[in-house]
Amino acid sequence: GRRSAQSREQTYVMVKPDGVQRGLVGEIISRFERKGFRLAGLKMFQCPKDLAKKHYEELQEKPFFPKLVKYITSGPVVCMAWEGPGVVASARKLIGSTNPLQAEPGTIRGDLAVAVGRNVIHGSDSVANGEREIGLWFGEAELCKWHLELTPWLL
Ligand code: RTP
Ligand code: MG
Predict the structure, then answer these.
(1) Ligand 2 ion: Cβ-proximal residues, 5 Å cutoff
(2) Which residues lie in coiled coils (predicted)?
(3) Which of 56, 59, 62, 68 is the most buried (most CB within 10 A)?
């Protein structure tokens, strides 16, 4: 039924090194929790160069790609898998536009960042990429399965 399929949608969200260093991890987790999504995976992690390149492989021809890889590997990130109905699109809304100067107030980037090269957070841009990225960043044993029948207030 609806609560077993659609509500199992997952997205990969990551606090980038600037967000970790600026002490924004709690604030960011809090926004997703308060929205009503379920945290299925969470860890702090120093990303190796190979993984950063793989994660952003769709952007490898862009002029900013080397800088982007350097940024993501410049310090620990906080990796998260969030789950819930429509979580991929909703997370992108909570996060705001790629360029923080274009991001609406009330969004994470709109409230907490000023530069595209230091935009604090990542969120998957499609359901397929969410699955791909969670597979890249997490091992099976690092992800928790919520028992929805025991948490009826969570959709
Ligand atoms: P993300 O993947 O990190 O969630 O960001 P996004 O979907 O909003 O944007 P995307 O096009 O996927 O770009 C990935 C990240 O690359 C950096 N970037 N720099 N012009 C630039 O210098 C530039 N453009 C993009 C940003 O950190 C962006 O989040
Ligand atoms: Mg992207």
Answers:
(1) 125
(2) none
(3) 68
